[in-house]
Design goal:
Radius of gyration: 19 Å
Helix content: over 70%
Distance between the termini: 60 Å
Structural class: mainly alpha
Strand content: under 5%
Number of strands: 2
Length: about 260
Amino acid sequence: MLLASRRRLRAEVLIVLGLSLGQSAVYSIVQLLDKLTRAPLSEATSTLNRSQSTREYFDLTYQLLDIFFALVPVALVFYFLSSHASAANESARSPFARLGFNFARPGKDLLQGLGLAALIGIPSLGLYAAGRALGITTAIVPSGLDAYWWTVPVLVLSAARHAIVEEVIVVGYLMDRFGKFGWSTPAAILVSAVLRGSYHLYQGFGPFAGNVAMGLVFAWLYTKTKRVMPLVIAHALLDIVAFVGFSLFGKAIGLG
């Protein structure tokens, strides 16, 4: 019975990852190989938040649809968590409470999120600069959207989307499932962190290393607090600063 349950959970995890960040990791590896075989990595560019139409309101529609459908695997995660808990007669807590994705302690979560954003954000800039200098990181354009009235709100929504998808799936959900597989905590943290780095490989080896380090910190903190909300807040803040700051003030970081 236990073996059958673990097989079901492994299949569940593969389905979730195949629909979300596991798929992104595979594409990221292929994109990295494509860039490496075209020219030196330092000459490549990675554009985030690309424009999808030259027509303003069609572009807005595509952006909102992308954000909405990217969150569907998160809904699937909470469905799996709730259905498995019912079948196994586990805690009656909601799946949102199990992962700490709620507003049970808003003040503390916000303070932890702000602290994490500062802890991760400042070293990330140095790592990016070092990666560019070493030629192992592409130039990163955080936003390729044209300047419309809706650009900043969409970028904020995009940042929130990335934060929710990554922290709920890669940290909260996977750490829960890895524990049920019988994995040790260090092994679960390491695999979670490497997965986070892998779907950033299209940006180069510097962002891969930086995101692995971020993943180690985030997953370790989750094992102590059992809450993904501070991680979501920190991640969203980092992305908002990058996306919106670039849209309002920046040129391609590291170009030229």
